[in-house]
Write a structure and sequence with these properties.
Order of helices and strands: EHEHEHEHHHEHEHEEEEHEH
CATH superfamily of the largest domain: NAD(P)-binding Rossmann-like Domain
Radius of gyration: 19 Å
Number of strands: 11
CATH class of the largest domain: Alpha Beta
Bound molecules: NADP nicotinamide-adenine-dinucleotide phosphate
Number of domains: 2
Number of helices: 10
Strand content: 15-25%
Low-confidence stretches: none
Structural class: alpha/beta
Helix content: 40-55%
Mean pLDDT: 97
Strand order of the largest sheet: 1-11-8-7-5-6
Largest sheet: 6 strands, parallel
Shape: globular
Length: 282
């Protein structure tokens, strides 16, 4: 069994971004790419995520701008901030940190972002391009998972992949990218019957459900590749959706939590910000 080192792969991606920023922006006398993160206050985990994005921007030599809104902000207020960033020529990418408080509709707000600056590829326009294989960027977490598999030289083409979870942010997006890499993909969700029967056939099992330690060895085929996307805060600390100790001995490769998909999501956000900046130059 190999434990995949997501942190190390993420460092490699960020270093490549940093070099491109230096070569194609700084050394050319151009202003560096800038990522704007909007955070509506009230979610502790979001604060941590935004701080790590800010840190990654600094590492890559890119600018970051954090826009903070009060927890009770109206949609009008949020839209006004998004519009301001859409019209700001110094901003290359906009990320709206989810989840939002109940009075705000995440779908409507995400789609207010200009598709050219939509760094997580979640507007309907960009998802349409993704699902028609016409995309220049894809959602960060899904992109990170594919990069992780490729980094480890894990064959995807012709393999049977099972994705547990069907959110646009993770499940549907990664299933689509796997299919574009010629895997045969099955998506499971909370209404799936006899899920173990399906997951036990997977050569590659991607788990994105948001339930601590839910997937045990009984769900996994011997020799499978298991990628754990889940981030769950428990009394014992941060854990994934996969019961690592139980599942790891059965796998050929497994990604841990923390130190697996999480760092790759941030690294791919940096790459997407750079791509958005390059596209806006054209
Ligand atoms: N590592 C990273 O960078 C990263 C990035 C994003 C998200 N995450 C984490 O990944 C997890 C999933 O995120 P998300 O945004 O996709 O969550 P989500 O929108 O809540 O979606 C969860 C999905 O899991 C399915 N599900 C829930 N319980 C299930 C069960 N017992 N059996 C089978 N399917 C089940 C749900 O099915 P239904 O559709 O039927 O409800 C849903 O499709 C969370 O822990 C989140 O924190 C990590």
């Amino acid at each position: 069994m190999k434990r995949i080192d997501g942190k190390k792969i993420a460092e490699e991606i960020k270093t490549a971004v940093k070099e491109k920023v230096e070569k194609n922006f700084k050394n050319q006398g151009k202003s560096v790419p800038k990522l704007a993160c909007i955070i509506v206050e009230g979610n502790k985990a979001s604060e941590v995520y935004v701080a790590s994005k800010e840190k990654a921007c600094a590492f890559c030599g890119m600018e970051s701008l954090i826009v903070r809104l009060a927890e009770d902000s109206t949609e009008e207020k949020l839209f006004a901030e998004i519009d301001k960033l859409n019209n700001d020529k110094t901003v290359s990418g906009i990320l709206l940190q989810l989840p939002l408080p109940a009075q705000l509709d995440a779908d409507r707000a995400t789609n207010r972002i200009s598709p050219q600056k939509d760094v997580d590829c979640l507007t309907y326009e960009n998802l349409g391009k993704l699902f028609s294989s016409k995309h220049k960027i894809a959602p960060c977490t899904a992109t990170g998972i594919i990069k992780m598999l490729k980094h480890e030289h894990i064959e995807i083409s012709g393999k049977r992949a099972v994705v547990i979870g069907r959110s646009l942010l993770v499940g549907k997006s990664v299933a689509n990218l796997l299919e574009q890499e010629n895997a045969t993909v099955t998506i499971c969700h909370s209404r799936t019957k006899d899920m173990q029967k399906i997951t036990k056939k997977a050569d590659i099992l991607i788990v994105a459900i948001g339930k601590a330690n839910y997937i045990t060895a009984d769900y996994v085929k011997k020799g499978a590749v298991v990628i754990d996307v889940g981030i769950n805060r428990t009394e014992a600390g941060l854990v994934g959706d996969v019961n690592f100790e139980d599942v790891a001995p059965k796998c050929s490769y497994i990604s841990p939590v923390p130190g697996g998909v999480g760092p790759l999501t941030v690294a791919c956000l940096m790459e997407n910000t750079l791509t958005c900046a390059e596209n806006q130059e054209k």
